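Hi L.,

As promised, CPBP family intramembrane metalloprotease:
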Amino acid sequence: MNRVVRPDRRRRRIAAATLAAGAGLLGASLSAAPGSRRFYGLTLATAGTWVAGGALSGAFSRAEPSQREPDRRLVPPVAVAGVAFGGFCGGALVARRIPPLGRAVDSALGLAGGGSLPLVLLTTAANGIGEEVFFRGAVFDLAGRRPVVASTATYALVTATTRNPALVLAAAVMGALFGWQRRATGSLRAPTVTHLTWSLLMVTVLPRVLRRPCAGR
């Protein structure tokens, strides 16, 4: 007699396997030389893992737009991204004055500093989309009573494979914000738009903001 596997159990198994694979790829990608073929290959593979695992885990089964708030409006999530970016700019300027945090910030910025800008933007956007599909999609749906807390904690723990405290802190703060957006709108669109806008600002504008402090040290 064939044993029937419940859909939720199957989804959890797929999500667990995706977490293991994605965390491994993320850690490997951040250990590769920025701008190298290996770096771009691993980062794109990480994004693909999040998207595929999220879709197979049912990321789109419940992530429907809420009727209370039209999800087609793009201005609010873009504005949220701008405010978050401003906060991170201020935080980065302060962190640069603390040697351990300053090194972590410099290391994170170095990921965007080498290689082709179009490829950096491509991998940044691909991973932003992939992370939302998996963490605010599948993980959020499978989390139970506290999906924002669970998805944020999972997101931060996976980011810890980079061994960069600045990236882990960013994942914890922004993960909570993305999770709140998912819960408030009932959709993946708002957190995805915010994530993409914030990430692209971080890799294109933040290095310029910090350039003068770097030169003055």
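The radius of gyration is 18 Å.

Thanks again for sending the construct details.

K.
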